[in-house]
Amino acid sequence: MDGGGGVAPQLSEEATHHLQQGIVMLLSQWSALQIAVHNEWGGRQSSQLAHQLALDIFSWFTRSKEPLYIDDLENMLDEAMLSLNTMTEDGSIEEVAEKLMTMHEECLEGNYQSIEKLREASSRPAVRHIRQPANEDDDDDNNGDDDNNSSNMIVDAAEAAPQPHLNPADMPVEEPRTSNPKAAEAADDGWVVVSSKRSRGKRN
Predict the structure, then answer these.
(1) pTM of the predicted protein model
(2) On the chain, which terminus has fewer CB atoms closer than 10 Å, C or N?
(3) Residue whose C-alpha is closest to residue 40's, from 150, 192, 196
């Protein structure tokens, strides 16, 4: 799913509005992202990082002068999760990227079916399990102390995920950020691993 050769096609004003809302709704339903924001795994600015991701994706779709490639979008999503100290290994990054590319292509055609489906599914979040390891190399032999809960925390996303932190009405159109100086600092606090039975793999 890419824009092929040449300049990326432009969205109409109506399609741009729908795309903006669709991006926010999709991210709001991404359980791994919402749990990371709710638990502030990226620090106090976790919510702002999620808002910035929505802005960056929207700007990438609407302002890019070059063809759009799904690999670039996956990298953007992965970097955003890393800035939240979350390593996503459940394949959801690829799923979200593919849905975003499909949504964009449909908006170019004036088709908002994917966005309507997001609205219908807004009250039915996907169930995913989040594992938050702490000091993986040191805790293997430490099975009985009080920190055991933090070394292997399993969260049911359907129960633990809060109301979505992103609201289409609150998302202004801004320039995408060029860097995230907080990411390196946050990384020192330990990673959160999102995993599932499915292995993560690139789509061809």
Answers:
(1) 0.63
(2) C
(3) 192
